Structures are given as C-alpha cells and as structure tokens.
Predict the structure.
Amino acid sequence: MKRIATLLLIAVFALGSVSAAKADGIDLKVHGQWDFAFGWADNIVFSDNVAGRGDRDNDPFIARHRIRTQINFITSEYLQGVLMFEIGNLDWGRQAQGAALDADGVNVETKRAYLDWMIPNTPVSVRMGIQGLKLPSTPMGSPVFDADVAGVVVSSPITDWVSVTGFWIRPFDAYANDGSGHHYDDEVDAFGLVVPFKGKGWEFNPWGIYGFVGANSQIFNYLFSDKQGHYTMGVGPSTGADNAHTKVWWAGAHGKLDLFDPLVLNVEGIYGELRPAPYFATGPDWGTKGWYAAATLDYKLDWGIPGLLGWYASGDDKDAANDGKLGRLPVLGNDTGSFKPTSFGTSGKWAIDTDTVVTGTATGTWGVGLKLADMSFIEDLKHTIRVVYYEGTNSAKLVRKTGGAIPPFKYAVDGLYLTTKDSVIEVNFDHTYQVYENLTAVLELGWLHLSADDRTWHAKSNKDENSDAWKAQLIFQYKF
C-alpha cells in the first residue's frame, strides 16, 4: 500500500508541475532512452560444475528492457530542476521485477534528482542532489568513479583556457537514524577537485579526491561482497564487521592531444590508497593501494577509426592474505562497471545486454588491443571490430593459499580475479544500424577465451579452465 501511495504522489506531483508550467511560464523538456535487449550467451561466469549438475552457470537466453525518462523543469537559462526516472532492468518473466504474467510490478526508481543553477551575476554553476558524476578519463572509462551519487558540484571558468570544478559527495550513509545503534560515524564523505586546462589541440585534466570513511560505513561491503550482496569466504576483510574510521584518497590526470588531427592520443594515470582499517573482528588490518595507467591512439578516416589501446593496473602480492595490504587501486563508485574498452569482457556494452565478464574496474589486470571502429560502407550501417589480449597482475601464489577458490579480495563488480598465470583473448564484432533518426538497432557479437592456470585454479568448481564464452545480443534503442 505504501508503494502504491508513493506512485500516486509522484503522479500528482507530475500533474501539478504541468499545471504550474502553464501558469508560471516553466518550460518542460522531456528526454528519454528506452532500451530493449534480446540475447544469447554461454559460460559467462566460467563455472564448470554447479552442485554436480554440469555446466549450468547462466541462462542461455535473456529478454529485458529498461526505460529512462528525464524531465527538465526550466525556469530560465540560470535555473532548472531535473528528474530522471528508471523502470528496469526488467528481465521478461521475472515476477520479482514486475515483468512476469500480468506485470503490475512497482518498479519505478529514482535515477537522478537535482537542482541546477547559477550564482547570480557570476559564471559559477551549482548542481545539488542525485546526479551523474564522472572523472576525466581516456575513452576506456574511469576505473575509480563513474556513477550517480548524491552531492554538490560547483564549477566555474577561470580564464579562457582553465576552469575549476569542486565537489562534495556522500556515496554511503549506511544506517542513518534507523535505530540500529550504528548511525554514528557511518558515512563516507568525499571531497574532490578537477582543474581542466584546454588549449588549441590539447587538454590536461588533473584531479584529486580525499575521503573520510566512517567506522560503520560498510564500504568494504560495497567493494568485496558478491553480486548478491553476500560475503563468500572467511579470508580477507570481514564485511560483516564494522571497519574503524579511516581515509581514502586518489590523485590522477588525463591528457588529450589532437593537435595532429585526425591522430588523437589520450593518456591517463591514477594512484590511490584506502588506508588500513584497524579493529576488525578477526584478522589483519585491511587496506589497499595501487595505480593505473592507460592510453589510446586513434586515427580518424572517412570510412572508420583504426586505433590502439592499452592499460596496466597494479595487483595484489603473495602476502596480501597475511598482512592485509592489497596492491590494487581502490574503487569509490563504479556502478556495474565503468572500465569499457570492450563490449563483452569489460563494461563497454551498448545498453543493457551482457558484459563485464572479466572486469569492470581494470584493477589487477593489464591489456593491449587493436580496433577498427565505426567502419561504414553502407549508409546508416556501422561496424566495430576489437581484438584485445589481457592478463592478471595479481600473485598466483596468493590464490594458491586459498586452495584455488576465488579469493575474497575480488571487487564485487569484477567477473574474474586474474593472476599473473592467467590470460584472456577477446574478440568483438559489433554493428549499429540507424533505423530512424531516433531508433538504433545494434547487434553485438563477442567471443572470449580464458586460459586459467590449472595449478593455481585447481578447484574446478570455481573455474572452467581454458574455456570459451560467447554472446550474441540484439538491442533496440529509442532515444529522444
């Protein structure tokens, strides 16, 4: 009943806003992205055996859709409110999502809700509320932060070639005042600064973030719990225990050089630390620190864009299970993955189909690849081919200490935990066709071969060694 009442209130609010728009001169603008996906996939979690029943690690066919609609309530060029609602992802036939027979699910979610305004008589813009925030990065995406988050973002130009953006965000407030007795010191507050420099043919975007991690914030649940929110093993940071007050910080920079257009170079470097958090119930004090570097080189031609890409991210050493000092870059806000050089093994899918089979963060891996993007020989039809090879940078000896099972140190958003003995080859062959101006049809074809070290991953119930995964996904996207 409470959910129904909530939806009715939303409807009343929307109708009231329309009436106000007519009376007070508020301009309403509606934007949307509606995605529908139909796809086949196999072996996407690389599990060879589930309770003795053979290779049954995933449904071979999915049909799902997601509806995103944004409304801008514009008073003037200096003031507007923005609401974005989302329905989905809805897997067809799933009763819990309201997509089964007779539907009737309460599945409207708030995606974004913020106020966007200018400080009077200044060039300073302010956004406050739940909004999308992304750090500067190469086209492969930011491994540290790209998500919707509640906070305040303030931006202003300084000169013609430099500007500044500062922000405060609160990604976690674990208990609030829910009577649990843990509502004190349960937040993660992060403060960031981005100072973009831009000249003719070049960009340089340094940035930094410093955060306070509360004793009851449960940030380790976000980092290390599995996709169902459960912590799976007894070795490693105990997400069931409260971590003591600690700090986290990152420093990074992104550069872009297109002075020699059509040749475009992007480079990026990041270092970050989540300081050890003492007073766990058992085990050592856990923390992580690491670095990441990446580059892309593209050459724009009339018929397509050939390019090179590569990255390297530090990994965990063999003693991490004993001393609690992980060697990977910490992650603050990665949603379902924001590292996206490919459309199958990483998070570069077109919309809502299958991806992030290997990693959504790049941490603990390195890779190199070739691509031919946006090839077009027929009007409105484009093709992209990628071939990428990547390996792990995590110690194989660390995994052997856990008996070959997937370590608890794997970030929740990553599909696999790769060691220096493991490698992956991935091939994408993706196609887009512009059916109408606002309707795009996409066919994504992906194949991935995992070569996992048998000596390291001897618990075969957790790894299907030297195995292939594939997908064929058809997506329709209506955008307005």
Notes: The mean pLDDT is 85. The two ends are 33 Å apart (CA to CA). The first helix runs from residue 2 to 24.
